[in-house]
Design the sequence.
């Protein structure tokens, strides 16, 4: 009995314990974590950095929020058209991201009709080459082409479009084929309305005529021609348009009607001065406020007269109306043509007249040129006011008074300076992340300096950039002025600081051929470092400078409150380039008469293969053939780095034949070059080369040529330093250039030449006044040792000394043949000036050349220099100026004042 009671108590206790446990609160389960991430791109495992585009890491707590954030970050890169995510597993989740890349349009092709392909390419808007391709956009692109074909006269065109995808790149080619269309002939083309002139005058200006095929685009050009015609005969507001377009499907013809409404005739008359009416006629082509039109015309006429020197001219406009005509009359009193004698100032207290003239580059005359143009004279009051405002005078006013004198006009600028405002202190309110003194060093404004509000706005941008360049995003900066003592203020910058951001990952996408290591060399920002905006932009610039990418894009994708991924997307450009050129050259550049100067055609061809082996290397093949001057073939290889060092190596091999004045030579050789940038404008170039030369057709006296140097080899080492601060290497107007080249040829490896050579060049360009440009080029060459004829210095011709023909300056043999020398000194001074204001690319030039070539260095003397003076014309082109020049050698009695003529492309070099 006792045993049974004990068992019952144990059973009851167990039941109560089980019930208590069941009633206890459940232990929360551990949250799932990301165990594995799989990234597929177009169905294949992601290669390279593409896998890193997903911002989730294994071990992160799994949630729909982080997946959604990761998908949005991938879309922000702009690389993908679709992103889908699948998850599997419960405690350790496997995430599979399937990314579908955007397709881009590489090329478009058109077949089936005879229409200019360029016209159709102009019509492409939706799917033009380089744009993102989507299948649903193809019908819209087809409609655009149909409209373009309709404009060319191909109506109701049926177009088939299909695409072909590049198997190696995410891009497609689109092929458009026109299978059918309908064309119409013009049955009649009537001109309706009060045409005011014989209809035949209008029909002659139209290509759309009866019997011809109809093209709406041609008709539109015809209508514009009619508008221009009516504007020329005094009806600038004529309304002309297509009034009827009746198609006859069965006959395949169309009847057209163009309606003309001439409106009122407008006659512009300028009395009292020779000013072209076309200067003000365009003002009245549209319906305008007549008072404004009169004032605008008066201003244009005054400006024209002032540019010609009629600075006291007055103009008054008026309108006279009759039934069908409006006469716009400008009465002009030009006064005398006056020269600016002097420029003076009144009211100056803070600056001297000289200081203002120097700051604004105001000089009455420079040599025999008038340096102050009349139009700038009237613009100077605004320039003076701006000068004062930048120095802290916000209320300055400047006016111009002209005082006529018997000899011309005196210009008097009356200046009221007003109060001078300065900055007592600069306060950074809210700056905690960086010391205030560090930010202040970057600003344009300084304590104690002048107050100029545009500089304050610039400083707002500078502060924002300072924060961006130190990895802080989201900073807002505003400015305000707080009054201090008399005429001084406290400059306060209110800074709402953002949050520091570091770069978690740097990911590169888009490179198919280019090796990752090549791109990594150009990336100057680092993972784990602050997101320095200036370094990110420098990375972009360095990648662009490689010359192998058609586009480089940098995107900053936030992956957390204080981290971001930097996505660098590159688009590799075309890797092949081929070109061919045909030109003409003379055997002597000193004559314009081709019949007196043998000439021949010059053929050139070039092939370039870029980004070789994915290393940003370039293989170049260049060939040139000319009967008169030179024939050569050059093969070269260049790449941006040498064994990972910041040295740009290049290897060249060449075969050439050059025809000089009194000898020819064949040469073949090769060189190895290293280029190292030493600064923004400074380059160091080192070269090792070997060549073999054979002299041919030598007209020079045998005594001038060593037998051993008729056929000789040269082993050469050289070092070059180039410092270039010109504003434009092809068309410089300001800046300096300096180069120094040292060469040593040693008799090693069985070579004959044993000499040293130094060559220095200095250029200086400066505008003396607007459009009056001074240029100076100085060259010095020295050489000594066992020197062959082709290695000596020669001068004469359009690019060295214009007082002599090509190579004719300096020593000669007994027969008068140039033999070159071991010392060279040349100076070319030029003054370039405008000729006609409307033709800004055309200018005149006056030049003075000084120099000579000497047999030995010891023969160099100032008294032995030759000189030449000349004039010419220059026309500026993107490839350098086209030069037409004539020069007189000043100490050439045998020429009796006869000039030499030169026609050249490019600057003196």
Sequence:
């Amino acid at each position: 009995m006792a045993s049974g009671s004990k068992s019952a108590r144990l059973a009851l206790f167990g039941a109560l314990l089980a019930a208590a446990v069941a009633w206890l609160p459940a232990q929360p389960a551990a949250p799932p974590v990301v165990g594995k991430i799989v990234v597929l791109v177009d169905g294949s495992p992601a290669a390279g950095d593409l896998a890193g585009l997903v911002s989730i890491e294994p071990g992160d707590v799994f949630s729909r929020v982080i997946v959604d954030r990761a998908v949005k970050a991938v879309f922000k890169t702009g690389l993908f058209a679709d992103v889908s995510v699948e998850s599997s597993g419960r405690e350790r989740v496997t995430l599979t991201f399937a990314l579908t890349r955007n397709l881009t349009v590489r090329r478009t092709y058109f077949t089936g009709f005879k229409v200019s392909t360029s016209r159709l390419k102009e019509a492409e808007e939706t799917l033009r080459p380089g744009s993102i391709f989507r299948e649903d956009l193809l019908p819209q692109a087809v409609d655009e082409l149909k409209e373009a074909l309709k404009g060319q006269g191909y109506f109701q065109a049926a177009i088939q479009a299909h695409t072909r995808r590049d198997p190696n790149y995410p891009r497609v080619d689109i092929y458009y084929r026109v299978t059918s269309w309908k064309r119409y002939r013009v049955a009649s083309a009537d001109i309706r309305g009060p045409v005011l002139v014989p209809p035949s005058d209008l029909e002659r200006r139209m290509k759309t005529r009866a019997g011809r095929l109809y093209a709406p685009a041609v008709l539109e050009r015809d209508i514009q021609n009619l508008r221009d015609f009516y504007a020329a005969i005094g009806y600038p507001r004529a309304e002309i348009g297509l009034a009827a377009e009746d198609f006859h499907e069965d006959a395949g013809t169309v009847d057209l009607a163009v309606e003309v409404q001439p409106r009122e005739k407008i006659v512009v008359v300028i009395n009292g001065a020779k000013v072209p009416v076309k200067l003000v006629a365009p003002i009245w082509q549209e319906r305008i406020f007549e008072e404004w039109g009169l004032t605008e015309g008066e201003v244009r006429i005054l400006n024209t007269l002032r540019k010609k020197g009629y600075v006291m001219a007055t103009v008054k406009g008026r309108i006279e109306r009759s039934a069908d005509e409006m006469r716009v009359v400008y009465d002009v009193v030009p006064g005398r043509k006056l020269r600016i004698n002097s420029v003076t100032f009144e009211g100056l207290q803070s600056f001297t007249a000289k200081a203002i003239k120097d700051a604004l580059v105001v000089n009455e005359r420079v040599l025999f040129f008038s340096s102050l143009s009349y139009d700038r004279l009237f613009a100077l009051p605004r320039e003076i006011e701006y000068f004062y405002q930048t120095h802290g005078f916000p209320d300055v006013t400047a006016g111009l008074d002209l005082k006529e004198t018997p000899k011309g006009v005196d210009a008097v600028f009356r200046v009221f300076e007003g109060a001078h405002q300065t900055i007592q202190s600069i306060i950074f309110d809210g700056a905690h992340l960086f010391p205030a003194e560090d930010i202040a060093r970057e600003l344009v404004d300084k304590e104690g300096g002048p107050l100029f509000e545009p500089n304050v706005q610039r400083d707002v941008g500078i502060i924002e950039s300072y924060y961006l360049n130190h990895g802080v995003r989201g900073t807002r900066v505003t400015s305000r002025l707080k009054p201090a003592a008399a005429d001084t203020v406290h400059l306060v910058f209110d800074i709402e600081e953002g949050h520091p951001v570091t770069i978690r990952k740097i990911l590169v996408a888009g490179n198919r051929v280019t090796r990752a290591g090549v791109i990594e060399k150009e990336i100057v920002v680092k993972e784990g470092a602050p997101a320095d905006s200036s370094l990110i932009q420098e990375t972009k610039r360095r990648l662009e400078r490689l010359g192998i990418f058609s586009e480089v894009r940098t995107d900053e994708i936030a992956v957390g409150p204080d981290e971001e991924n930097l996505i660098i997307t590159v688009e590799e450009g075309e890797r092949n380039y081929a070109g061919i050129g045909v030109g003409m050259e003379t055997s002597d550049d000193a004559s314009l008469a081709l019949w007196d100067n043998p000439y021949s055609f010059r053929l050139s061809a070039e092939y370039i293969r870029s980004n070789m082996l994915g290393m940003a290397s370039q293989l170049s093949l260049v060939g040139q053939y000319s009967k008169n001057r030179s024939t050569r073939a050059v093969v070269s290889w260049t790449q941006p780095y040498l064994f990972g060092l910041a040295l740009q190596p290049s290897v060249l091999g060449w075969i050439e034949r050059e025809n000089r004045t009194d000898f020819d030579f064949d040469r073949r050789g090769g060189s190895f070059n290293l280029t190292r940038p030493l600064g923004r404008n400074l380059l160091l170039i080192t070269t090792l080369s070997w060549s073999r030369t054979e002299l041919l057709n030598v007209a020079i006296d045998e005594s001038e040529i060593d037998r051993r140097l008729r056929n000789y080899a040269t082993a050469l080492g050289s070092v070059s330093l180039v410092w270039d601060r010109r504003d434009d290497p092809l068309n410089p107007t300001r800046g300096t250039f300096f180069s120094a080249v040292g060469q040593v040829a040693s008799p090693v490896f069985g070579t004959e030449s044993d000499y040293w050579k130094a060559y220095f060049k200095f250029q200086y360009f400066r505008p003396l006044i607007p459009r009056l440009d001074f240029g100076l080029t100085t060259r010095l060459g020295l050489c000594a040792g066992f020197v062959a004829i082709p290695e000596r210095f020669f001068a004469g011709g359009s690019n060295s000394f214009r007082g002599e023909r090509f190579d004719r300056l300096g020593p000669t043999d007994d027969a008068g043949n140039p033999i070159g020398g071991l010392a060279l000194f040349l100076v070319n001074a030029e003054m370039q000036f405008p000729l006609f204001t409307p033709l800004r690319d055309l200018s005149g030039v006056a030049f003075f050349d000084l120099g000579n070539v000497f047999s030995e260095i010891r023969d160099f003397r100032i008294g032995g220099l030759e000189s030449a003076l000349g004039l010419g014309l220059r026309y500026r082109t993107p490839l350098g100026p086209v030069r037409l020049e004539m020069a007189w050698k000043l100490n050439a009695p045998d020429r009796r004042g006869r000039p030499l003529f030169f026609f050249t492309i490019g600057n003196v070099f």
